[in-house]
Amino acid sequence: xxSESVLDAALKELFDLSPVPFSISTIDHDSRYIKxxxxxxxxxxxxxxxxxxxxxxxDLPYPLDDPARMKRLHLxxxxxxxxxxxxxxxxxxxxxxxxxxxxxRRRIDGESFDIEIILDNSERKAYERAIxxxxxxxxxxxxxxxxxxESYLRQALATLEPGCRITLAYIDLNRFKQVNDQHGHSxxxxxxxxxxxxxxxxxxxxxxxxxxxxxxxxxxxxxxAAFEFSALRFFDLGTQIxxxxxxxxxxxxxxxxxxxxxxxxxxxxxxLLDQAxxxxxxxxSSGKIVDIRSSLNSIAASEFGALxxxxxxG
Length: 314
Prior knowledge:
alpha+beta; single chain; 5-stranded mixed β-sheet; 5-stranded antiparallel β-sheet
């Protein structure tokens, strides 16, 4: 049989040599370090001299009273352990490291302490982010896709505050089919990426952009209720979209038909989308390279004149 002293030495070596971070801390609210292994020091990027007797809170990117941490402490107080709880650790460089922590509260020879085992969860979190991006990002343009758009707009409508308003701009590219037919889909795809960049450059705080599919885009704007709507802002977008661009030595141009609808109290996602869609088709039927139709009544007559003049001469 192995003697207790040999077994103790083996366990100490296991603690020191393990690639998994271990920490032993006090059971008080501050959870002060008693001992850690080298893997833990590597995880947080600190030396033992920096940690000895200090609070674990120094290596957490949130306060000690964070609800998730208080829940973990409650589990230690009531059942003596918890397993694989998500926790973020703070590296000395400022980098946040997602982790999974399991802990046990032990009492030996009248002394109580907590033993924590932490698994670096960075790779799994990165994989989850990649999955989410694949699910919600349009691979062609890098914009948000239709699934992301629907999720965002439904949530925005459900949580709309009294001091805010939501507008939806539904955009269809005029003459895009001609570009595809005349120059091929390769140039058409590159043109879509150019348009996406122009949308990104135009948008401001409170705007959410998505490619809905094909040559259709949407912009959801959550703005203060006192904000005065102007169709000229969207006509500026239309004229930016309609600027000529040279792709593979081919000069091409598309325009924009834009329908803008505003959410009313209690309006559903489907109703708002249907309104913007119908307005967009009204704009498209005009045959102009850029045309905008809106359900809002705040467009001044002078703005209509400017729109029509620019649309004819664009």
